[in-house]
Structures are given as C-alpha cells and as structure tokens.
Specification:
20 helices; 515 residues; 42% helix; single chain; 15 strands
Length: 515
C-alpha cells in the first residue's frame, strides 16, 4: 500500500476517534485558566554596559540604560548619568547588551505543560516568540489574557488559528471560509500544514482579499517561485521535504508532477461536516503526534528515492535563481536547522545524551525515543539520503543568505524533543557559514521588520520595549557568546543568571530528573 493511502486511512480513523472525543468536549468543556497579569516593573538602570548595534555591528561602550514602565527611557554615557532616586542599579561592567531574542518558530503553547517550556525559553534569552499552531480556543485565551504569559515568560508575538489540513480545506469555498473565520477570531496569519496546490492558491487568493499573511509548509507539487510570487509570506524548515530541492532540480517538472500525485497527507475519503471540522481542528495534531515528532521516520522508500533524485539533479544556477526570486518577492525563510537535524540525523548518539534531556517532559522524551528507534530501523540507503539532506540544508541556508533572502531564527521546539534549543540553532547557523552578526540580526532586528514592529522592538534604543539580553562575551566575535547569558530583562523585569538557573532547576526537578 502506498504511503498516501496509509496516511489517508490513518487520518480517517483518527477523524472518527476524534469526533467522539470532540463531541464529549462539548458536554465536558475544558475549564478556562485564570487570567494572567503582567505586574509593572520598578525603574531599573543598567550601568557600564557595551551596547551592540545590531544594524551595523558597532560596539558602544560604557553606557547606562534607564528603564521605566517597561521601556527604555534613556541611554547615556555612564560619566554623564544623573542619579534617579528609587531606581534599582545593576553594574554589568565588561558585559554586552543586545535586544531580546525572538524564537520565530515555536509550538510551546501546545505542549502539555507550556509554563515549563516558556520558562526555559526565557532562560536562553528568548523574550518573544511566534506560536506556529493555534485554535479558536487559544485565540480566545489570548483575547482574555488567560495564556500562561507573564514577566517570567517571553511575549507572544503572533499566532494563527487552526492549521490548514486536507480535512478542513477541501474546496475553494472552504478556503474562503477558513480565512474569514480566522481573521474574525483574531489570528495573525494562516498557517499551512498540508494541502493541494490548487487549494493553496485558493487560500492565497482569499487571504490577499482579507490582508491575511499565509505561511508555513510548501505542499508537495508546489513551485517555490510561483508560491512566492502569489504571496506566500514565510517558508518554514526550508520547505519542508523536497519542495525546495525539486525547485532547484534540472528535472523539476517531472519530480513536481510525481510529488503532487503522491502527497504525504491525503484527504479523508468522506466529507467532514463543518461543525465537526471546528471540533476536530485542535485535536488532530495531537492524534498524529508520533508522526509529527519526526516525519522522516515514516517516509516510504519511494519518496526518499524521489528526494535523492532531486539531490542528484541539483542545478546550482537554478537554485540561485530560486533564491533571487524569493528575495525579490520578499518571501521570508525560517530554516529551523535544529529541527531538520533532529529529523535527518535522529540516529545520532548525541541525541541520547543531549544536555536538554533533563528539562524534557519524561513522557514526551520516551515517545521521541520510540520514534528514534523506528528511524534507526530505516534502510541504510534512506538514512544515507537523509544524512546528505542535512549537509545540503546547511549549504542551502548559506545560499539563501548570500542571495539576500530575508531570514529569521526559530527552533520548532516546544521542549518535547532533544537538540532543539536556540543555542543549538545558533551553532548550526554558524556551521552553515553565517556570521555571528547575521545570526544576531536574524534573532533580533529581522523579526521586528517581519512583524512591522521596528518602532517597539529589534534594537537597543530609547522608546523600545525593555526586552534585553546581557551577555558576558562579545557576540560578534564568537557565536557561542550568544549563549553566555549574564541576565535577561523582560518588559523591564530583570532576571539574573542565578534567577535563570533556578528556572531550569525547577523544570528539571518537576520532571523528576534533577541531577
């Protein structure tokens, strides 16, 4: 049986089961969590710090930064600073300050215990994140300030509604309905999970009329340049899968047609009523959680062989033309190299000893190890293709950067699997050949540009949000210094290195794994 048929049957069974669960939820709805309150921060002054200008890479030494009301109120040379009574002063001589990090591909709010993951994100310098899956319920919780967000967590920057999947968008009418519905509920963008090429373009057309960005996965059979030209705003995971590689292949037409005939997720063989779609949307990703841990572990040999043919027919000039088109059209890319690495190299021994393991939810880690065993049992030729795929992913990331494609940093992590921290993403981007300044820009300035929020974030300047990372080493001389965190300021609230370590210890202790 072909993989697509298997997935259709699996999804159909999941739909039937999820319908029963969803109906039960109507009668026993999940209670709303308590409202969250961001308490105002007391005035704070950071003295003797070197500011890193993320636009130019210029270092501005011995500054004092006065923070009031969660914003940067004043920046002066320390020698000319005036005393302000009642202001907490922190001397950070020898340290460097950069804007807060932004993880632009996260699923942390979908985790079983999101508060733990949010605390860990703050401990690695993340002061803002883009949530990449949502639902009507999650959008309602955001409107009512009931998400677990406060001074000890990063800020939620953007969130979609339900993912676009074959069961909830099966026609052009469905596409228009979904876009209108998500805009009404307050979604910031439409996230593509899986769909067909005709329906993707129907969604893009509907979204243009409602001024809703569309981003996410490029479905099988899609030409990246055509999607970019049609308004696809941000491509995640370098595709994922084989879409970018087919776009860079001298056999593009044949491989694209084959990919469109055999999508990874097919539509259910029966129509799903609209009311059931609404109830199912937040449940289906959970029912497919094992496959989502690593789609590569469940790839059929014929599909891996198609990926290999795309690699074998790679045409450098054609790939440069694809990258130039993305740059020209303003299509963003979020490589999430740590996600691709943990997929393509899941049998690497380092993932069994990863330093992140003590902070993972034990049940989630056990599920990940079972999928890792499935991956390790794949045919050697499949795993060889995947190993080549990761090396090529590093090279493609460098090419995209060189051709001017706008890029942002993200991990795809929710602290459910090893090897997906921001620090590790910084390391992989450096392995791809990106400079420390470029990586810092992708993590601070560029998300502000993407979100059209340069007035409030993305640099250390008067009037900007007081979301800052204080580093104990020059981040421009060595990318590892991006992980040497002396302290974090979140909306004017200061978290010392000891405070951040206590967050990590609490999470590990709660999971019963503290050494």
């Amino acid at each position: 049986m072909h993989r697509t048929a298997k997935i259709v049957l699996y999804v159909s069974g999941a739909v039937v089961f999820a319908l029963a669960v969803a109906i039960a939820c109507v009668f026993w709805p999940e209670p709303l969590p308590a409202r969250q309150h961001m308490e105002p921060a007391a005035p704070l002054r950071i003295d003797h710090v070197t500011i890193v200008d993320v636009d130019t890479g210029r270092l501005i030494p011995d500054r004092s930064i006065l923070i009031e009301g969660g914003r940067i109120a004043q920046i002066t040379g320390f020698g000319s600073v005036a005393d302000h009574p009642g202001v907490r002063r922190i001397d950070v001589a020898g340290q460097y300050v950069v804007p807060g990090y932004n993880n632009m591909h996260s699923h942390v709010l979908a985790a079983a215990h999101p508060a733990a993951g949010l605390g860990l994100m703050l401990s690695e310098g993340v002061t803002g994140f883009r949530q990449m899956n949502g639902s009507d319920r999650m959008l309602k919780l955001r409107r009512e300030n009931r998400l677990p967000l406060n001074k000890d967590t990063p800020a939620l920057l953007a969130m979609p509604g339900d993912l676009v999947l074959p069961f909830n968008v099966a026609s052009e009418t469905d596409a228009q309905t979904l876009v209108r519905h998500q805009k009404k509920k307050g979604a910031d963008f439409i996230k593509i999970g899986a769909t067909t090429p005709p329906l993707l373009y129907a969604i893009l057309s509907a979204a243009r009329k409602d001024a809703m960005p569309v981003l996410g996965h490029l479905p099988e059979g899609i030409d990246p340049v055509q999607a970019s030209r049609s308004g696809f705003h941000s491509i995640e995971h370098l595709g994922p899968g084989d879409t970018m590689w087919i776009g860079c292949s001298s056999k593009k037409a044949a491989l694209m047609a084959e990919a469109e005939r055999h999508p990874s997720v097919g539509a259910p063989p029966f129509p799903i009523p609209a009311f059931a779609q609404k109830l199912l949307a937040p449940l289906l990703p959970k029912l497919m959680a094992r496959r989502l841990l690593n789609p590569a572990a469940f790839e059929e040999e014929e599909d891996v062989a198609r990926l290999q043919r795309a690699f074998d027919s790679y045409e450098p000039r054609q790939c440069s033309a694809v990258a130039q088109a993305l740059a020209r059209n303003g299509t963003w890319m979020v490589p999430t190299l740590v996600r691709l690495r943990s997929q393509y190299l899941q049998d690497s021994p380092e993932y069994r000893t990863d330093p992140l393991i003590p902070y993972l939810e034990p049940q989630a880690y056990r599920a990940w190890t079972k999928v890792a065993d499935i991956f390790a049992a794949l045919p050697e030729r499949s795993r060889r293709t995947f190993r080549e795929g990761y090396d090529r992913s590093l090279a493609l990331t460098a090419l995209l950067a060189d051709e001017g494609v706008p890029m942002m940093t993200g991990t795809d992590g929710s602290y459910q699997t090893p090897g997906m921290s921001m620090g590790q993403e910084f390391h992989e981007l450096a392995r791809a050949g990106l400079s420390p300044l470029k990586i810092l820009q992708m993590t601070t300035r560029d998300p502000a540009i993407f979100l059209d929020r340069t007035a409030t974030m993305g640099s250390v300047a008067v009037g900007k949000n007081a979301d800052l990372v204080i580093l104990s080493g020059n981040p421009l001389s060595d990318v590892s210094n991006l992980g040497h965190i002396f302290g974090v300021v979140r909306s004017g609230h200061y978290h010392s290195r000891d405070d951040l370590q206590h967050i990590r210890e609490r999470v590990a202790s709660a999971h019963g794994r503290l050494d």
